[in-house]
Amino acid sequence: MTESHRRAIQARRERERNARIQGILQAAKKVFFSKGYLKTTMDEIALEAQVSKPTIYQYFKTKDELYSALMLPFLEEFGAHFETISRRLERGRYASGSKLVKDLFRAFEKSFEACPDSLRVANTFFQNTDLIGELEESTRLAISSRGRYDFELARRLLAKAMERGLIREMSPYMLSDIIWGMMLGITQVMDMKAARGTKTSRLFKETLRAAERIVTEAIAIG
Fold first, then answer.
1. Domains of the chain, earliest start first
2. Cα angle: 30, vertex 36, 39; to 5 degrees
3. Predicted pLDDT of residue 169
4. Whole-structure pTM value
């Protein structure tokens, strides 16, 4: 067997592996949303994914690990965008507060578009204290620490923007919570509208832009 043949076989196996993982994640997402985390079993996920339960355990050791794999993508995506904005701020790339606010809202929009269901799973997790207590400590800490990192990054970013005179002085903790609450609230309202059959793709962006303008007028300098 030639080296190129081996590489081709390896690439095919990797594609098959990734496709199987995505199939399991899609099935888990469907069952979790339908029955909730606590009532969902690995047998039901295996049935929905049309694979055996041992096959799932090849990729995810526990239900917690599977749930975490669904939730973390949005938190990681969102954090990565905020890290980019933070670096731009440190390098003096922002000449006005309005551009900074715009980038904050775009970061949320891009993260949501990349991982919409991941945000919904994360939002359910952080709102459900009973669910938090049911997860294994290692999983709970991994999820909570990632969420805490994103929040603290946002607060430091806003505090630095205040120091640079880009946004008005106020508590960065309160401001972060206000902006985050607006963003999450909009997605939840869009989900409720979608459940009633309303097409929300364009409405989501328009509403997010309106929220951006409100925040810009309230806090941006320049």
1. 1-60 (1.10.10.60), 63-219 (1.10.357.10)
2. 110
3. 95
4. 0.79
